[in-house]
Design a protein that fits this description.
By secondary structure, the chain is an alpha+beta fold. About 30% of the residues lie in helices and about 30% in strands. The protein starts with 11 loop residues before the first strand and ends in an 11-residue tail after the last strand. The protein has one domain: Gcn5-related N-acetyltransferase (GNAT) (Aminopeptidase, 3-Layer(aba) Sandwich), CATH 3.40.630. Strands 7-8-6-5-4-3-2-1-9 form a nine-stranded mixed beta sheet, with helices on both faces.
C-alpha cells in the first residue's frame, strides 16, 4: 500500500533493536505465522479476550482479520494503531496503541503480544517504550493506560519499569471465569522520568489528521 493512500503505512518507529510499522500483506502474513506458533503456554490465558484459544490456523487467521479490521474501522475519533514489530529484520510480535476522542482526552491505551520464541529478551519493554514515545512525544498525550491480570508478572514488570502506577482493579469474565485485572496509568512526568530507550519517529507529520490532530 502506498503511503499517499493511507499515510499510516509511511509511519515507522525505530529503537536500537526494533522497527514498528503498520504491516503490509506480506508482513501481516508473517505476523499471523508468529501468532500461530504460540504466544503463551496453553494452560494460561493472559488476555481479557481469549483470542489465542483454538488451533494454530485459527490464531493466524484471527490475527490477520483483526489487524485488517483496525484499518477498516479507523476514524479520527476512534482508532487503534496495530504495529508489527521487527527485531533484526524478523517479525516477532505486535504492539497496539489506541484511543477514543484523543484530541479531547489526550489519553491512549496500549496492548501487545510477543511470540513465545522471542520472550525473555527485553523486547516487550522496548516495543512498549516505542509507542509511549509516539503517544507522548509525537501525539501530545497526557496519559497512557494499560492493564494486566494480577498474576501476569511479566507484563506488570514491564509497566513498572516504564513508570506506570496502579489505577485500580477490574474483574472480567474470561473463559467463563472471573479474573482480576490491574489497571495501570502513566502520565507525562512518569514517562519522562523513566525514559531509557532511544526512540525515533519517521513519517509522523502526514498522519496527524488521522489521529484527530
Amino acid at each position: 500500500m502506498e503511503p499517499h493512500v493511507w499515510p499510516l503505512y509511511g509511519l515507522r518507529i525505530t529503537t536500537p533493536r526494533l522497527e514498528l510499522r503498520l504491516p503490509d500483506l506480506d508482513t501481516l502474513s508473517d505476523l499471523a505465522a508468529v501468532a500461530a506458533a504460540g504466544v503463551h503456554d496453553e494452560d494460561e490465558m493472559p488476555f481479557s479476550v481469549p483470542w489465542t484459544d483454538g488451533t494454530p490456523g485459527e490464531r493466524g487467521r484471527s490475527t490477520f482479520q483483526h489487524l485488517l479490521g483496525t484499518v477498516a474501522a479507523w476514524t479520527p475519533g476512534a482508532w487503534t494503531l496495530s504495529l508489527a514489530v521487527r527485531s533484526e529484520g524478523e517479525v516477532v510480535g505486535r504492539q497496539d496503541v489506541g484511543a477514543n476522542d484523543f484530541a479531547v482526552t489526550r489519553e491512549a491505551v496500549t496492548g501487545s503480544w510477543l511470540g513465545q520464541t522471542y520472550q525473555g529478551r527485553g523486547i516487550g519493554t522496548e516495543m512498549r517504550a516505542a509507542v509511549l514515545h509516539l503517544a507522548f512525544e509525537g501525539l501530545g498525550a497526557r496519559y497512557v493506560t494499560s492493564a494486566a491480570m494480577t498474576d501476569n508478572a511479566r507484563s506488570l514488570r514491564v509497566s513498572e519499569k516504564l513508570g506506570y502506577h496502579p489505577d485500580g482493579l477490574e474483574v472480567l469474565s474470561v473463559r467463563g471465569e472471573a479474573r482480576t485485572f490491574r489497571r495501570l496509568r502513566l502520565d507525562r512526568a512518569g514517562w519522562e522520568a523513566h525514559r531509557t530507550v532511544p526512540v525515533e519517529l519517521h513519517g509522523l507529520e502526514p498522519t496527524l489528521a488521522l489521529f484527530g490532530l
